Amino acid sequence: MPFHAPVDDFTFLFDHVVDFARLRETQQFQDATDDVTRAILTEAGKLCDEVMAPLQRPGDLHPARLENGIVRTSPGYETGWTAIAEGGWIGMSADPEYGGMGLPMTLTSAVNEMMSGACLSLQLAPLMSQGQIEALEHHASDAIKALYLPKLISGDWTGTMNLTEPQAGSDVGALSSKAVDNGDGTYAVTGQKIYISWGDHDLAENVCHLVLARLPDAPAGTKGISLFLVPKFIPNEDGSLGAANGVKVVSLEHKMGLHGSPTAVMQYDDATGWLVGPEQGGMAAMFTMMNNARLGVGGQGIGVAEAACQHAVQYALERKQGRTALADGTGTISDHADVRRMLMTMKADIFAARAIALSCAMAIDMARATGSDDWRARAALLTPISKAFGTDTGMAIAEMGVQVHGGMGFIEETGAAQFSRDVRVTAIYEGTNGIQAMDLVARKMMDGGEAAARLLDEVEALAEAARGTLPDLAEPVWQASESLREATEWLNAQTDMNIRFSGAVPYLRAFARVLGGYLHLKAALADQEGAREKLARFYIKRLLPEHAGLLAHAQAGSEDLFALSADELAA
Ligand SMILES: Cc1cc2nc3c(=O)[nH]c(=O)nc-3n(C[C@H](O)[C@H](O)[C@H](O)COP(=O)(O)OP(=O)(O)OC[C@H]3O[C@@H](n4cnc5c(N)ncnc54)[C@H](O)[C@@H]3O)c2cc1C
After folding, report:
1. Which of 32, 127, 343, 395 has its CA 20 to 30 A from that of 304?
2. How many helices (H) and strands (E) does the chain have?
3. Neighbours of 183 (CB within 10 A)
4. Residue 252, ligand 1, Cβ within 6 A
5. Tens of pLDDT along 230-261?
6. For a substitution probing ligand 1, which of 263, 429, 441, 443 has the most ligand atoms within 8 Å of its CB?
7. Which listed residue (430, 450, 475, 533) is catalytic?
8. pTM of whole model > 0.90?
9. 173: which DSSP letter?
10. What is residue 292's predicted lDDT score, i.e. its pLDDT?
11. pLDDT score of 196
């Protein structure tokens, strides 16, 4: 079934829900006019539908493979990569000084999400480069920027991020890779990194690795970590390629999905690297890349959800089975109430997750354009919510897509199963969703819940204003926001972090549920009696009430979680 990039949905969201026009009022983004935005979304949509979506299945059937030390990518990926690179899609938000387009992250997020729906495995490659570009823009020396950024933006070279080691997954601070100062401005990097996405491939002439490692005598934990840029081939000053560096691919992982994306074990042996950011300032620099990737990975979940939903709706509108209770229906399974429940849930949650992700991207852009601390805090608050809710939605909806297909969902040819397998990792990489929730209830509440309270003020102001026109939607949104406000105050009063962590995942999901209600309400106000209002009503009546159970869970403390001893757990 062909994929159709949801260009119209993004246009609606930009115009009526996230207030994209606000960005155009800033000096930085004044060129992102209505015409430019629409042209970009339309062109990206064509790339997704015509070039990337046809690569989805070949990547699954013919995974990337390691041959004599070189990673060979799936059939057709080279064409896809060339189209992405030549279209300028990698550097959409990158600095124009180095060949980027300087466009808002909000627009890049929309394009990235559409690409994820078309072909997740391939889309991960430009996403990794984008993260590296941003990290270098913020933290690298001028010489590194001048040499690397134009090549990464053009797609001649690609970027990776190397954090994970066998003993250092969620706990990055446990890493043991080492770096020694060579005394000539370079460092010798040694160690093994695992699970490195697009760690090597045959699509570009050079692969540039951002590697976290520890200098001699550096303190333990995250404080002692530095960041190094380690290219596969050491570039000459003019950008031509020099000698091969001391880095190689040991093996590729066999995975449950995402087969087209090579996931590599990388070995560094005295590889030549350049410091990015200050010594022992590695985590701050890497966080620039990780925050970018967190927003991007949330979008990956939503993109796959969109593709899975399109497949399921199409199938449900064609498959006939059983007598339906609808007199004037289509006579297909889409008339069955339970199938409708699934299809409506898919559409309503995709809207909510997408609107939250775009709100996060807007906050990032507004923070950049205005320098405002409030926008910065909004972006920081929304990043873990966007990542976890986007990817949870991706998993739930891909899984629902399988269910809508019945037995055919379990048969690979329909593609429904691939969505479910591919999207699974998005809740794991870039910080598991559990870690995102802990970030929300700990670091992101270090302001005592101020940023959250400011956001809830906006939710309630809209609900108040909507009481006259859509009272049956406005009231539940207002009530849900108040419950979340009370839970947030309760959370901030907890000094025992284990109590906060015990409720972190349900708290994050409740937050997303409330934001989803708010953003659906905005859409309903803009499209009264139209399809958006109908979808909002479904969400607010049926999905939003979940917040109450989640908040009860979030405030249940930690005692019962640890009531069973380890022996009792194992019994
Ligand atoms: C396909 C794929 C691609 C990847 N790409 C990259 C990449 O490009 N670069 C890179 O550096 N890494 C990459 N990763 C690694 C990925 O980021 C890690 O797998 C992830 O961070 C989790 O680490 P772990 O696998 O060691 O799991 P663990 O850290 O062992 O976690 C296991 C479980 O324990 C939980 N847990 C762990 N610590 C805590 C805690 N403190 N509090 C609460 N719960 C906790 C986790 O949430 C999880 O549920 C990739 C992984 C995969 C599978």
Report:
1. 32
2. 20, 11
3. 7
4. no
5. 999 999 999 999 999 999 999 999 999 999 99
6. 429
7. 430
8. yes
9. G
10. 84
11. 98
Residues 505, 441: contact at Cβ < 8 Å? no
Of ligand 1's listed atoms, the one at least distance from the Cα of 166 is 26
Token pair in block for residue 125: 């490659």
- Quickly list DSSP for 327-355: TTS-SSGGGSHHHHHHHHHHHHHHHHHHH
For ligand 1, the distance from its centroid to the CA atom of residue 365, given in whole angstroms, is 28
pLDDT in the model for residue 426? 98
pLDDT at 374: 97
Pocket test for ligand 1, best of 121, 170, 225 (most atoms within 8 A of CB): 170
Per-residue 3-state assignment (H helix, E strand, C coil) for 136-158: HHHHCCHHHHHHHHHHHHHCCEE
**How far apart are alpha carbons 200 and 180 in whole angstroms?**
24
For residue range 381-397, what is the model confidence (pLDDT) as tens digits? 999 999 999 999 999 99
> How far away, in angstroms, is 428 Cα from ligand 1 center?
6
Which amino acid is residue 76, in one-letter code? G
- Distance, CA of 53 to CA of 45 (rounded, Å): 10
Using a 6 Å cutoff on CB, does residue 403 contact ligand 1? no
**What DSSP character marks residue 52?**
I
**DSSP three-state, residue 231:** strand
430 flagged as catalytic? yes
pLDDT of 272 over the 90 cut: yes
